[in-house]
From TrEMBL:
Subcellular location, record wording: Cytoplasm
Organism in which the protein naturally occurs: Dichanthelium oligosanthes
UniProt entry tagged with the keyword Transmembrane helix: no
Family, similarity comment: Belongs to the glutaredoxin family. CC-type subfamily.
Entry protein name: Glutaredoxin-C1
Assigned GO CC terms: cytoplasm
One Pfam short name: Glutaredoxin
PROSITE patterns for the chain: GLUTAREDOXIN_2
InterPro entries tied to this protein: GlrX-like_pln_2, Glutaredoxin, Thioredoxin-like_sf
Domain Glutaredoxin: 13-76
Membrane-spanning segments: none
Length: 103
């Protein structure tokens, strides 16, 4: 859990992902299209990835721990929460406040 917290606080936007997860790819692509340079942590490529994924699953209250999106060091949630924020017009202001967008 400490590693997740440390990684999540190092950049404005951090996405915990696995390379084979289509929802992870979708969320990552959304941030790219918005002009955000998110840090993507591929858990299946990290030696401690399984441990981090379990911690993220507990945080999210789900059986799967990815995708898990942190903005400004705070857990936003998974795909459903990110898309809901985007569709309601609340994602971009959140990104601006975190320093992830300058426009």
């Amino acid at each position: 859990m400490d590693r997740v917290t440390k990684l999540a606080s190092q950049r404005a936007v951090v996405i915990f992902s696995t390379s084979s997860c289509c929802m992870c790819h979708t969320v990552t692509q959304l941030f790219r299209e918005l002009g955000v340079n998110a840090t993507v942590v591929e858990l299946d490529e990290d030696p401690r990835g399984k441990e981090m994924e379990k911690a993220l699953a507990r945080l999210l209250g789900r059986s799967l721990g990815v995708p898990a999106v942190f903005i400004g060091g705070r857990l936003v949630g998974s795909t459903d929460k990110v898309m809901s924020l985007h569709l309601s017009g609340n994602l971009v202001p959140l990104l601006r406040n975190a320093g992830a967008l300058w426009v």
